[in-house]
Amino acid sequence: MLLMLVAAITSSVLHMGVRYVSPRIPVFEVVFLRTLFSIIAGAPIVFRPGHMAWRSNAPLLQITRGLIGTMSMTTWYYSLATLPLGDAVTLSLTT
């Protein structure tokens, strides 16, 4: 339960940050920076020496999943930047 609470709080803070910086920074740059920091934070876990669990037997599916995730994040951040706050919260609660 504690991890779910932390995830909800950090997700809300992230969305507030996107909304705050979106008038000054284009959405594509926000997505790039979020992805870059996620890769930097996760790299020590993923690329541990001798750890093979992250290898994929279907790299094309992994690439497709990454592209769909990137498109989804881009459209969500764009909607956070352009929609009124009440509409964005309503959309968030539908997921």
What labels describe this entry?
95 residues; 78% helix; mainly alpha
Whole-Å distance between the termini?
Answer: 19 Å
Order of helices and strands: HHHH
* Poorly predicted runs of 5 or more residues: none
Largest sheet: none
The 3D shape can be described as globular
Rounded to an integer in angstroms, the radius of gyration calculated over CA atoms is 16 Å
How many individual β-strands? Answer: 0
User: How much β-strand is present in the residues?
Assistant: under 5%
Structural class of the helices, strands and pairings?
mainly alpha
The whole-number mean of residue pLDDT values reads 87
Structure description:
- By secondary structure, this protein is an all-alpha fold.
- It contains 4 helices and no strands.
- α2 crosses α3.
- The radius of gyration is 16 Å and the shape is globular.
Indicate the topology.
Layout: H1 2-21, H2 27-46, H3 59-82, H4 85-94
How would you concisely characterize the structure shown here?
The chain is an all-alpha fold. The protein has helices at residues 2-21, 27-46, 59-82, 85-94.
